[in-house]
């Protein structure tokens, strides 16, 4: 349910469970972590995307009730993503929610389709977000807007996400991967040392 397409030094990691809105199980999260770790020494660009019209609904409902909603796997995944020395791009093919939000926040760049929605219903569900997510969210959109999402439970549209700085571009669905290719080009033609060096300087 986690597919990897390797196009030279660009890895496209695909959440492939469209019949369940790409909701994630513990095994899928572990597979994502292993894939991201493997990319560290081989990829100059890593792309996260999903199959179908939803990026990910977050935790699988049954797994969430069994404890996945508060599993350290989410934080492990987002931390591993954030620490990659390569360029990371979230190509959001649709709505994302809950823990999946953290995956996108940990990426360097975020693109989404026009009908994507963003929400993180921890207040309603009675869970705390993963520790790094609020800080990354506030760094992008500011404290008040982070509270709009996390505390007021607001569902954010693609247009709002763009104006808030949560995403970099809105791209029509059929052009999403073309846009990813364009953003990948400079990193793919540079040395791994150069890619990692610029990323470290921006930090």
Written description of the protein model:
The protein has a six-stranded mixed sheet, sandwiched between helices. The protein has a four-stranded mixed sheet with strand order 4-6-8-9. The radius of gyration is 16 Å and the shape is globular. With 203 residues, it is α/β, with parallel strands linked by helices. The mean pLDDT is 95. It has ten helices and ten strands. The protein starts with a strand and ends with a helix. Helix 1 runs parallel beside helix 3, helix 3 packs parallel to helix 4 and helix 6 (132-141) crosses helix 7 (143-150). The protein has a single domain, classed as 2-enoyl-CoA Hydratase, Chain A, domain 1 (Alpha-Beta Complex), CATH 3.90.226. A hairpin with a 2-residue loop joins strand 1 and strand 2.
- CATH topology (fold) name: 2-enoyl-CoA Hydratase, Chain A, domain 1
Task: Compute the number of structural domains.
Answer: 1
Helix content: 40-55%
What is the level 1 CATH name? Alpha Beta
Q: What is the percentage of strand-forming residues?
A: 15-25%
General form? globular
Query: Which CATH architecture would you pick?
Result: Alpha-Beta Complex
């Amino acid at each position: 349910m986690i597919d990897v397409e390797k196009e030279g030094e660009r890895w496209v990691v695909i959440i492939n469970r469209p019949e369940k809105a790409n909701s994630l199980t513990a095994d899928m999260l572990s597979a994502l972590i292993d894939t991201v770790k493997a990319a560290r020494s081989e990829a100059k660009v890593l792309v996260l995307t999903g199959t179908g019209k939803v990026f990910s609904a977050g935790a699988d409902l049954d797994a969430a009730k069994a404890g996945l909603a508060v599993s350290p796997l989410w934080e492990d995944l987002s931390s591993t993503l954030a620490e990659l020395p390569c360029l990371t791009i979230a190509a959001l093919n649709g709505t994302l929610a809950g823990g999946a939000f953290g995956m996108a926040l940990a990426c360097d760049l975020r693109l989404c389709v026009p009908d994507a929605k963003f929400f993180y219903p921890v207040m309603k569900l009675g869970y705390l977000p993963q520790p790094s997510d609020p800080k990354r969210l506030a760094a992008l959109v500011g404290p008040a807007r982070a509270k709009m999402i996390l505390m007021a439970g607001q569902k954010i549209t693609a247009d709002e996400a763009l104006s808030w700085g949560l995403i970099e571009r809105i791209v029509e669905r059929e052009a999403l991967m073309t846009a990813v290719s364009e953003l990948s080009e400079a990193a793919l033609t540079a040395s791994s040392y150069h890619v990692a060096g610029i990323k470290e300087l921006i930090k």
